[in-house]
Every structure is written in C-alpha cells, then in structure tokens.
Design a protein that fits this description.
- By secondary structure, the chain is mostly helical.
- It contains nine helices and no strands.
- Helix 3 (about 35-45) runs antiparallel to helix 4 (about 50-65).
- It is globular.
- The model has no long low-confidence stretch (mean pLDDT about 90).
Length: about 160
C-alpha cells in the first residue's frame, strides 16, 4: 500500500508540475526520501526558465543529495546544485526567491559542507525585498521564518 501511495503521489506531482507546485513542495522536500525524490523530479521537469524555476532546479539537486546513498552521486548532486544556484544569484543578486531558497538550504546544510557563507547577505536581501515579492513567495518566507529557530522574534514580527 505504501509503495502505491508513493507511486500515485509521484505520478500526480510529475503530471501536474508547475512553479506553484514546485514552490509548495520545497517546504517539505527535505523531510524524507519520497518527498525529496518528488521534488527533484518536479523541479527537474519544469519547462520554465525563470530565475525562480532555475533556483528550484538547483535546490532539487541539493536536497536530493541528502538522501543519496552513493557518496560520489551525493557529492555531485550537491556540488552541481550549489554551483548553479550561486551562479544564478551572482547574475540576479536582488532576486528575493532565489536568495530565500539559498538561505533555507544554507541554514539547513550540515556545517561540515561549509555551505553557509551567504546566510547574512541572503537574509538581508530576503527581508529588504519581502514587501515587493509575489504573494506565494511571501507566504513561503513567512511560513519558513515563523517555523525556524534561526530567526529572532523581531525578524518574525517584521514579516507580519
């Protein structure tokens, strides 16, 4: 039964892949292997070449690496995703959603990987650009900031 539900969820997510679906899947992609696989497939299948879509595609690789068992694949997924995301942000430094995606990943990546050097800058861009972000992006940012222990009460209140 579990495998049928997994198959059905993967089928439905892949069949109805759009940026809104990928955006909502990002919030839970890291929680288990099935969610990571669905998110990776969804983000990889996006036909959209917007900055947001490309950022989610890069994030999909990085999140997938968390559940890879082969060390070479684990490293390659993470490295290629990180390079793509960083290059995208270098070209679009004020893109709030791309910065938010990198912020979330950096705050939740093990310290041993040393992928955490942009947290403060990303946080500044996300908070500064919050007011002009799309409603779906604002909702994702609010939900993450409110549920994360990595933000002060003042930062949480600034997003209300």
């Amino acid at each position: 039964m579990h495998s049928f539900i997994s198959f059905l969820s993967i089928f439905l997510f892949v069949f109805f892949t759009d940026l809104a679906s990928v955006r909502s899947g990002f919030a839970t992609a890291h929680t288990n292997k099935t969610n990571a696989e669905v998110f990776f497939k969804q983000s990889s299948d996006l036909k959209d070449d917007s900055v947001s879509a490309l950022a989610y595609k890069a994030a999909g690789k990085m999140i997938q690496s968390k559940f890879e068992t082969d060390r070479k694949n684990k490293k390659e997924y993470f490295k290629s995703g990180a390079l793509a995301l960083n290059a995208l942000i270098d070209k679009n430094p004020k893109h709030v959603e791309a910065r938010f995606i990198r912020l979330v990943i950096q705050q939740n990546t093990p310290a041993i990987l040393k992928y955490n050097s942009n947290i403060d800058d990303d946080k500044k861009v996300v908070f500064a650009g919050f007011a002009t972000a799309d409603l779906d992006v604002k909702k994702a940012i609010r939900n993450y900031v409110a549920s994360s222990k990595k933000f002060s009460k003042q930062e949480v209140n600034n997003l209300k």
